[in-house]
């Protein structure tokens, strides 16, 4: 996926790279991790526009979002993670780490881990994080909403944790995979079939969400593209009126939906997707967690929406 201009968050990535680089030039007698000095002091701007002061590359990190956990391990910072939220389950080694809660954090457990940084998404109440910050533990928010933004956050996480080169290599490989999809799905003349992706009965991905961006990149038209929220609940009548050509439902801890359930819904049999058996399943983690596995989800979703392009 290429772009003629820089993303709005690109400047934050170059800021952390420049700050770390200039700090290392003036640093002597220190030691390095992944090419970056541990002892340098620098500030990094997170996805909420907050300037976070770091006193050296963090060596004890607590991740309180499953997405940020995946990001940290993907860029090579897994050995620096000492605690995770209760939903973190990938990669496998996170299951051996101390759990610190989820939407409600266990501050006592977090403090016992002696972290020098907390990383999170935007679902944990800020008050809890601010309380921990008042005790000397800074927190950094990753809260992007697009596949391109996820790539930028990988680079940002790499710079933040002393694994910039690993992160850049990962991003380069992911861009190749993304381009191999979008060069086909976004090519001139390619149809954009109406697509409904459901992660919980009647709940879907609206504008500004990862699901919406992935449907677009996969060459589909989101039935909820003009909804009033990121994760709207739609009425059955509205979905039927959109007549989706493709239905995708995600399998995760929140839903037990099966393909046959859609045919049982009143009047759904008149939609193209149901009447032509165009109902598919995907792992929820591949479309809702903003880590590198989104690219796996993009590949799967594109093949579902446009099987003729990937046979």
Query: How big is the Rg?
Result: 21 Å
Largest β sheet strand count, sense and barrel closure: 5 strands, parallel
Binned strand content: 15-25%
Structural class: alpha/beta
Weakly predicted, low-confidence segments: 1-9, 18-37
Strand and helix order: HEEEEEHEEHEHEHHEEHEHEHHEHH
What strand line-up does the widest sheet have? 7-6-5-8-9
Q: Count of helical segments?
A: 12
Strand and helix map with partners:
Elements lengths: L9 H16 L6 E2 L2 E2 L3 E5 L5 E5 L5 E3 L2 H9 L6 E4 L13 E2 L7 H6 L4 E4 L5 H8 L5 E3 L5 H15 L2 H22 L8 E7 L2 E2 L5 H8 L3 E2 L13 H7 L3 E6 L7 H6 L7 H4 L3 E5 L1 H4 L5 H12 L6
Parallel strand pairs: 5-6, 5-8, 6-7, 8-9, 10-12, 10-13, 13-14
Antiparallel strand pairs: 1-2, 3-4, 10-11
Helix pairs in contact: 1-5, 5-6, 6-12
Report on this model:
- The protein has 311 residues and is α/β, with parallel strands linked by helices.
- The chain folds into two domains: 10-171, Rossmann fold (3-Layer(aba) Sandwich); 188-309, Rossmann fold.
- Helices cover 38% and strands 17% of the residues.
- It has twelve helices and 14 strands.
- It has helices at residues 10-25, 66-74, 107-112, 126-133, 147-161, 164-185, 210-217, 236-242, 259-264, 272-275, 285-288, 294-305; strands spanning 32-33, 36-37, 41-45, 51-55, 61-63, 81-84, 98-99, 117-120, 139-141, 194-200, 203-204, 221-222, 246-251, 279-283.
- The strands form four sheets. The protein has a five-stranded parallel sheet, sandwiched between helices.
- It is globular.
